[in-house]
Specification:
With 686 residues, the chain is of the alpha+beta class. The protein has 11 helices and 34 strands. A hairpin with a 2-residue loop joins β15 and β16.
């Protein structure tokens, strides 16, 4: 990818030369304007352009600094000042620039992807928010995202902010509707609590990986970035053909959109531009095009909401701690202000709630986010209780902004407040019980009555904990608060627990809080390899099987995964019969040897229409003994466990499907039967 050359069109080059000819006078970065906020209690850098040799003088509130332009650039650093204002900033060369209504206060960058980009206008109570927003001591600036292959020197401002900083009063107040909701709620709470002027810079873009916001040098020779950059390299190699395909799809899309409008219907989704050397979300691009131009403008810190795009595959989720850690280090290094505060949001609950214990990517991403707290001056706000199952963008951004502000008040502004919710400290195991100890408990732990999207939890039951024994099979645990900082867990299915998890799901049903009202952070006490719990380890894994009614219309490698060992409920992992309504159907598994069988576990799929399953066992693959029958609820995704007490030695397992639920998958009447996996637990016999 380093060999890719960017060609500048002649017209663009002429425009650039014309712009230079017009700038033969003192100018400054667009970051400096009327109504700006400069960072208090830090040296104040001011910079811009001027003809070589021109003397530039900068004055602010009685302080003066001078510089001589070299190579068309100049920079001065004014002495630090306490919060206050309004002041006037004057810059003198052959021409004079005057910026009025300048405040000294705290300035925060609002960065990340779409959940940070989500604007105040997307809040259900936006009108009341706007009605109560007037505040001359809060100032906003919105940077238009841009990508570059090397650091840009001048930021591009959003069109509504073309004139620069805007005060939350007067004719620009309505522009708040286009500003980050999380950022605004955070800044408003800080201003009202701390009392200093607040400046917020909106610099983010939805659908972005962290790698787009990191400079190239931070990734070189770093193992955490190899897979991502390798994938990008392959995308660049495929780009010419992908671009050609995209252009054809775009033409079809435009035609279909026109037809949809004629019929008064909603049109199809616009095809996505393929990743390539000019893509706005390419590696490093947004850092150089959007973040670099903000440096070295003095800031208090960063609030960040991102990670959704790094959650898949699971290797990316577990890698995120290293990637995000490098992002924070690089920003701090390039800003040159030391370890400024970097506060971020742990991902909200999202995706369909699964009643079974699971081992999902989003849980590992949240764990990676928690690990970044090892870096100095970092803080994490949980959004686990404000998520929505079917929307990756939770509507209510207020709690997220306020929780970020709580971290800042407690750890940045030293208000000695509880910074967050209960956080896992340690787990101990004795007999059939586990005890979990928490820190950040404030006034003590409590179970709360909460509504998580459409799910209501009672304060009478503490939800979200699971336990496992040596077999690593997690099951829901009964939990009770035993002290202000501890919870005791047990389950009749686990005689000797070895590990505990809390909120370990894409959309967990959880209700543990401290009395200050902050939710407990998801955690696990184990270090089992990511994805290992989605693998079955029984005797049937990898053994041959044969269906009486194979689905010949489908790719066998995609739909016949009965003994592949995967417990995930995905089309490529499940076994499926054909669609005919001829029953019974069946599948026979050859264990390839005599086995002592303790249990047979049949995992139903949450797709299609499996109903009744008859289990038969055989000692020789000739005679078969029906031993048990089970009826699954349609699409339940449940597990049925049979305990064997009949045959001492088993060679084969046979599953018979005498019927099917109707309708089947996709709302059609058909005879498809699907299972995720069949586990045969026991041992091989001599």
């Amino acid at each position: 990818m380093d060999s890719i050359r960017r060609v500048i069109p002649p017209a663009v080059a002429l425009l650039a030369l014309f712009a230079v000819s017009l700038s033969a006078e003192v100018a400054v970065s667009p970051l400096f304007s009327d109504h700006m906020v400069l960072q208090r209690e830090l040296p104040i850098p001011i910079w811009g352009t001027a003809p070589d040799g021109e003397q530039v003088q900068v004055e602010l509130a009685g302080s003066t600094a001078r510089a001589t332009a070299k190579d068309g650039k100049w920079k001065v650093v004014l002495p630090a000042r306490k919060a206050g204002g309004p002041f006037t900033l004057v810059i003198r060369g052959k021409n004079t620039l005057v910026f009025k209504d300048v405040l000294l206060g705290d300035l925060w960058i609002c960065g990340g992807q779409s959940n940070m980009q989500w604007a105040v206008g997307g809040q259900p109570d936006r009108e009341s928010i706007l009605a109560g927003a007037t505040n001359g001591n809060m100032r906003l600036l919105k940077v238009q995202y841009a990508a570059a292959d090397r650091p840009r020197e001048t930021p591009i401002l959003d069109g509504r902010w073309a004139a620069g900083w805007q005060s939350l009063e007067g004719p620009h107040l309505s522009n708040l509707l286009y500003f980050s909701a999380v950022g605004y709620f955070f800044g408003k709470e800080i201003h009202e609590s701390i009392g200093v002027p607040i400046g917020l810079i909106h610099a983010n873009l939805g659908g972005t990986h962290a790698e787009s916001w990191i400079p190239r040098e931070a990734t070189e020779n770093h193992p955490a970035f190899r897979a991502y950059l390798s994938n990008y390299g392959r995308a660049v190699d495929r780009y010419p053909q992908a671009l050609s395909n995209y252009q054809r799809e775009l033409i079809r899309w435009e035609s279909n959109m026109a037809k949809a409008k004629e019929r008064g219907r909603q049109g199809p989704r616009r095809p996505e531009e393929p990743m390539g050397p000019n893509h706005v979300k390419r590696p490093f691009g947004l850092y150089y095009g959007t973040i670099s131009p903000l440096q070295p403008y003095g800031i208090k810190g960063v609030v960040w909401y991102q990670g959704e795009n790094n959650a898949n595959p699971v290797e990316s989720a577990t890698n995120y701690a290293a990637v995000f850690g490098e992002l924070i280090r690089a920003w701090r290094r390039d800003w040159g202000q030391g370890d400024f505060p970097f506060l971020y949001v742990q991902l909200a609950a999202y995706q369909k709630m699964n009643p079974r214990p699971e081992d999902p990517n989003w849980a590992y991403l949240r764990e990676s986010q928690a690990r970044v707290l090892a870096l100095p001056n970092t803080g994490m706000a949980s959004a686990i209780d404000v998520g929505q199952e079917h929307d990756i963008h939770p509507t209510n951004k207020r709690p997220v902004g306020l929780r970020l502000a709580q971290w800042a008040k407690a750890r940045v502004y030293n208000r000695y407040e509880v910074p967050t919710g209960p956080t896992f400290d340690e787990a101990s195991f004795l007999g059939d019980k586990a005890t979990v100890r928490f820190v950040n408990v404030g006034s003590g732990l409590e179970a709360r009555a909460v509504r998580l999207d459409t799910h209501d939890l009672s304060a009478e039951t503490l939800s979200g904990f699971t336990l496992c024994g040596e077999n690593r099979r997690f099951v829901p645990a009964t939990a009770r608060i035993t002290s202000p900082a501890t919870v005791e867990l047990s389950s009749p299915e686990v005689d000797h627990p070895v590990a505990v998890r809390y909120g370990w799901a894409n959309f967990p049903l959880v209700n543990l809080y401290n009395r200050e009202g902050f939710p407990a952070n998801p955690f696990r006490s184990d270090d089992f390899p990511a994805g290992s719990l989605d693998r079955a380890n029984g005797l049937a894994v990898g053994k041959p099987f044969k269906s009486t009614h194979p689905w010949s219309a489908r790719d066998r490698s995609q739909y016949l995964g009965l003994t592949d060992g995967s417990l995930r409920d995905r089309p490529q992992d499940v076994y499926a019969t054909d669609t005919s309504m001829k029953f019974p159907k069946g599948v026979r598994i050859d264990l390839q040897g005599r086995c002592r069988i303790d249990e047979v576990r049949v995992h139903n799929a949450a797709v299609q229409g499996t109903k009744t399953v008859v289990l038969s066992l055989s000692a020789d693959l000739a005679g078969w003994l029906p031993v048990a029958t089970n009826t699954f609820q349609n699409g339940s995704g449940a597990t049925w466990v049979y305990t064997n007490r009949l045959l001492a030695a088993v060679r084969g397992v046979h599953l018979t499907f005498p019927d099917v639920w109707r309708p089947g998958f996709q709302g059609q009447t058909n005879g498809v039967c699907s299972l995720r996996e069949v586990e045969v637990l026991g041992a091989r016999l001599p």
